[in-house]
């Protein structure tokens, strides 16, 4: 009996002969079976058991970000071979049973593949965030231009200058970039990045509505500024949240 640990994004080939008498149980995370034609097969969740003998499954992969673990039990006595051709770490411990002897070994699969998977997810999230940032900047600038067209004056109180349209784009881009950084950090360190990102982003958006209310601007300008805070939020938050969910499924 041994534990097979697959880091996020890792893939390991299955050698049929070595799984002939083996039974696997997913004890953590999710494991996807790769079929003989290379097509993705079913995804097995926690406590799911499976045989691979005669199925034609050619690989196991971890579709998620967190390490997945599979308890592998070989019937008929002590395991003689690892279930797959992969490097193994030193045994984490051995247990002696009165009925028979088994080795309890952690086999960590694909560290390089795991790192590559992390890098791919981070780059994908950042790319999605960049596109959303450009869209948010364009939408905010357009909304500000429309507000000015109907007579809203974005002049700074107490005789200040009028806020130029490029200023809205710059501020939107800066805070959108902050949102991307938060999303990437949560993807790296949080077990529930999408949920935590939504909670954090909504909270920060609510806080950002306070300065316009205290700015002393006229009613039309205050309402417009509140709306201009909400426009990029409605673009960035759902987009990054969906991207986070897609990369943690």
UniProtKB/TrEMBL annotation:
Region (Disordered): 77-103
Keywords, ordered alphabetically: Membrane, Transmembrane, Transmembrane helix
Polar residues biased stretches: 86-103
Regions that span the bilayer: 125-147, 167-189, 196-214, 220-241
Keyword Membrane: yes
Name by which UniProt lists this protein: Integral membrane protein
Organism per entry: Microbispora amethystogenes
